[in-house]
Structures are given as structure tokens and as C-alpha cells.
Amino acid sequence: MPHYRLLIYLLAISIYHANVTAEDWKDNFQTPFESSDGWQTADYETAIRYYQRLATTCEQVTVHKMGKTDSGLPLHLVLITGENPVDIDNVRSDARSVMLINNAIHPGEPDGVDASMAFARDLAFDAPRYAADLDKVIIAIIPIYNIGGALNRNTGTRANQNGPREYGFRGNGRNYDLNRDFIKCDTLNARSFAKIFHLLDPDLFIDTHVSNGADYQHVMTTSQSQKDKLGLQLGRYLHETFEPRLFEGMKQAGFPTIPYVNSGGRPPEQGFPQFLETPRYSTGYTGLFQTMGYMTETHMLKPYPQRVRATRKFLDLAMELLAAEGETIQKIRQHDRQTYHNQTRVPIAWEVDDNNPSRLEFHGYTAKHIDSKVTSGKRLLYDRQRPFIQNIPFFNNYKVSKSVKLPAGYLIPREWHSVIDLMDLNRVEMQVIEKDLQLDGEVYRIESVESRSAPYEGHYFHDKVKLSVTAEKLRVRAGDVIIPIHQDLARYVVETLEPAAMDSLFRWNRFDTILQQKEYFSPYIFENSAEQMLAADPQLEQDFQSLKIKDEKFAKDRKAQLDFLYKRSKHYETSHRRYPIARLLSLPQR
Predict the structure, then answer these.
(1) What pLDDT does residue 18 have?
(2) Is this model's pTM higher than 0.90 or not?
């Protein structure tokens, strides 16, 4: 009997659904933004309840708990699959493209929260408008990513922002900026995101933000995957095909869009470089897996209702374009994955090409420096009564500043389980060695490191790294892990494990214990050994004396002199400054 009543209820709901219009559903599912005067944004609890109610009413919408966050609350994922539902574990076996939207990584920038709620509702109930696109695209939405920051709701921390009335805080519950955590994965949020990302393997990723910088006319700017860094065919495709069509659509909708204004406090019309999204950022991380990424950056000084409308329009246009281009994008992604690990050398660092700017149509306001009425200096003033449109220099061409020869694979000693865990989290193909053996490889030594003097996102980031490399016969033990380079996720492997890569795990202090010497010497005892070493090794004696002649400071420093000799003795620990991840020249036969 209960099953019969349930069937009657579901039938009634389906009949009702078939006879109401999209406007009726908008009335029943108004968002807090829509039901207010446009200056109210949904808080965490309201947003989750909204999606859950939407899923209860419409079978095309499902809500899933996808892992823990630092707040203690689960990270939710909303799937919208049109008339062809798919189980979340089988999304990537579906032929449709996938667009993943991430909201409130900075909860004080909630434009995407409100835009996505209305977007999801309209996808579910406005079939005439969206059915054709949902035949080709699956939409995935993370309603609120930084839950801890969203719960820390206030009205004042966004000092330069024009609405909404209340919003969350940038840092999460542990005060991490989550848009600096994707490669290092210090937070549970980042670990849960990685699970979502690899489950969906999205073709397009959108992370919604609000900009903080210069004043200008544009409501929407974007920080996207840098074309040269994304590289190969996908970088060219994004720059030459996808983005021009996307931006043209935004322009036709009344929101002329340009790349994020990265002017560093200078008037933008002087020109500025494209922002380079290293893998600490969401779009830099997704680029490691050949996923095109966009951060929408609505302008902080524009009224909140206008910013939400611009974000919503971006989501609509991105989905329409992905529906039209999805098959092409999927082929290019797979081509680039296969091409990457078949190259001889690959880039691991890039720098802006200052001699090769392009031009950008910029809609700005005339800027000038005037005497400050508050401080003793000058202030930058934008005159909104004097708008202009100019073609300005835009430095969006980057050149490779560092590259490495691809090895056959990498060897991770079993002791470095935290690194192995990150590889596993990101679904990297690995081989656990079952018995001891020897392999030919290369080993880095850390010759010097320059680190930040103040903490940055829980770390003292290594800004400069100088390496040397030597060939070795490597002792490989049972339980050690080998990562072959011939796999689709090769780029992630290289840019995390090569210590000189821009956001490598080494730079994020994952291997700092190797920088500390563990065994030392007592000078009054080691003096005897030092005498014997110099007497037995004429070349060492010559090098030692030459250094004292060349380096006046060294010549006066008894401790430095003994340390020089100690580090060339049999007593010095070979593990000091030896990078533990080895580059393999060949792989063992299975």
C-alpha cells in the first residue's frame, strides 16, 4: 500500500510538472537574490536546502555528499543531467561533455552562488530553452566550496566591494585561502575537490570570483588557462576558437569581457601581463589534466545585481559553446594527454615575453595621481566622468623559462607515504615494487634554496631552487613506488615531482626534512681526521687552500673550513640535500 501511494504521488507530480511553465517554477523556486531587491545572497544552509528541494522535485537534478571539509560539514555536488540521467560514478563513461562550476572558494565573492542556483533551476524546468544543450552537456555545481568561510558571515571584510549586504570570509575555518591549496592539498576541502574532479574529469571548469584591482567599465573579466602554459593543441584552441566565441557572446549580451586586469596598481592603459595561474590555483591545477579553466572575475565596484547577471550570462554561454564544441574539445584533450608523455622535453616554468605584446580593447576610466587628503603621498584616482576605449598592450605571450627531459618514470621511496598518498588521490598510475632490485636513474641534489621570510598559506615557500644532478645505480626496495611517465596524468606527475617546477611539492616544503643535517662533528676531535684527509688527498688539499685564497671570509672562519672538509669525508651523511624522488632512465619489466 505505501508503494502504491508513492506511485500515485510521483504520477501527480509528473502531470503537474508537465502542465506548468518555466515562469511558474521560477516563482516556486525563487532564490534569496531574486526574492530580495537583488542585494541579498544565499547563506550556506539556504543554498544546500534549495538544491535538495530542487532535487526532490526534479529527477534531472541530484545532490551528492562528496567528502569532508575542514568545517566538519560535507562538500556537496549537484548534477544536472537532462532527460538522460547518469549515475555519478559513471559520468565519464557518458559521451556528453562535462562542465564543472565551483562557487564561493572566496565566500565574500558570492556572485556565482546566486547565479548558479537560478541556473540550475532553469536547466531543470525550462526544457524548451535547455533540453538540446543538456543532450550534450552534463552540468556539475559545487554550491559552496569554502564552507568554513561561508559560515563566517559578516558585513565588513570586503572593504572595496559594492554588495551584497552580507557575505562570507575569504579564509576557511583554518584560515587557509583555498585558492592556493590545490597542488599542496593541506585542507580536506582540496582533497574532496580532487575526488570530485577526477570522478568527473570535466572538459570545462569555471571558478566564480570577484576582482580587486583597478577601476574600469567592464563588469566581467576572466582569469583563464594561459594559452602557452596550457600548451599543445588545447592552448591554441582555447585562445583561437573557444575564447573569441565566448567573449563575443558576452559582448552581444551587453557585458564586453576581457582577461583579468592584472595591472598591479598602475593605470591599466599602460598595459599589463596575463595572470599566470600556477597549480596552486584552481585553474592551474585543472590545466595539469588538460581541462580548460576560467575564473570569472566580476568587478568589485559594480552593483551586486549587475555582477550576478553577468556571471549567469557567462554560465549560459559557456554551456552553449561546450554543447557545440564538446566533441572537438574531448578529442583535443586526449590528443594532448598522449602527446605530452611522448615528448622528449617538457616545460616546467614560464615567464612573460615582454617583447611580444598583443593588443586588447580596454574600456577604462581616465586615471591620474593626486595629493592624498589622508596620507603624505599620492593616490590613484579614476575619473568616471571621463570614460575611454583604447587598444592597449596586453602581454599574453609566455615563453618557457625552464624545461626538463622526460624520464621513463619516477621512483618514490616507500617512506614518503604522504607523497604517494597525493599521487593516489589524483588517480596517478603507480607500480608497487614487490622485490628488491637495481635500476639506472638520476638523482637531484639541492645546492641552494631561497625561501620566504614570512609564512604563506601555512608554508615558507621556496622561491628559488638550484639543483645539480648525478647518475646513479638506484637501490629499489620492496614497497617502493614507481610512477611510469607514459600515462594520461603525466603532466601532474612532472609538475609536482620535479623540484624546480613552479609549484612543485618541494617548493611547498613537502621535503624540507632533507634540508636539515642530522649528524655533526666536534671540532676538537675532527681536527685529527681533517689533517689525515688533507695528507692523504693532494687534490683535496689544493682545493682547500685555493678556496682560502679566493674567499677571504672562508679563510677567517675555522668552523666553515672544518665543515668544508667534513662534507667531503666518509662521515658526512649522503642523504643531506639529496632529493629522494629519483628519475628513472628505464622501468623494470613486469
Answers:
(1) 53
(2) yes
**Is the pLDDT reported for residue 126 higher than 80?**
yes
The region that residue 545 occupies, defined by phi over 0 for left and psi between -120 and 50 for alpha, beta otherwise, is alpha
pLDDT at 465 over 90: yes
Is residue 293 within 8 Å of 283, Cβ to Cβ? yes
Rounded distance between C-alpha atoms, residue 244 and residue 353, angstroms: 22
What pLDDT is attached to residue 10? 47
Q: Average of pLDDT values for 455-479? A: 98
Domains of the chain: 31-341 (3.40.630.10), 401-517+576-584 (no CATH), 523-566 (no CATH)
Q: Rounded distance, CA 303 to CA 156, Å?
A: 16
Measure CA 4 to chain center: 49
How many whole angstroms separate alpha carbon 548 and alpha carbon 555? 4
8 A C-beta contact, residue 59 and residue 111: no
CB-CB contact of 196 with 136 (8 Å): no
Which residue carries 586586469 as its cell?
Answer: 261
Walk across the sheet containing 409-412 and list its strands: 431-432, 481-484, 409-412, 582-584, 437-451, 462-476
Q: What are phi and psi of 444, to 5 degrees?
A: -85, 145
pLDDT in tens, 199-215: 999 999 999 999 988 99
Residue 566 and residue 521 in contact, taking contact as beta carbons nearer than 8 Å = yes
C-alpha span between 268 and 248 (Å, rounded): 22
Identify the CA nearest to 204 among candidates 133, 149, 309.
133
Q: Is the dihedral of CA 507, 226, 144, 132 positive or negative?
A: negative
Largest CA distance in the chain: 99
For the segment 393-418, what is each residue's pLDDT rounded down to a tens digit? 999 999 999 999 999 999 999 999 99
Residue 355: which of 418, 273, 412 has the closest Cα? 273
Q: Which residues partner with 437 through β-bridges?
A: 476
Question: What was the pLDDT predicted at 17?
Answer: 53
User: Cβ(561)–Cβ(552) under 8 Å?
Assistant: no
Distance CA 247, CA 257 (A): 6
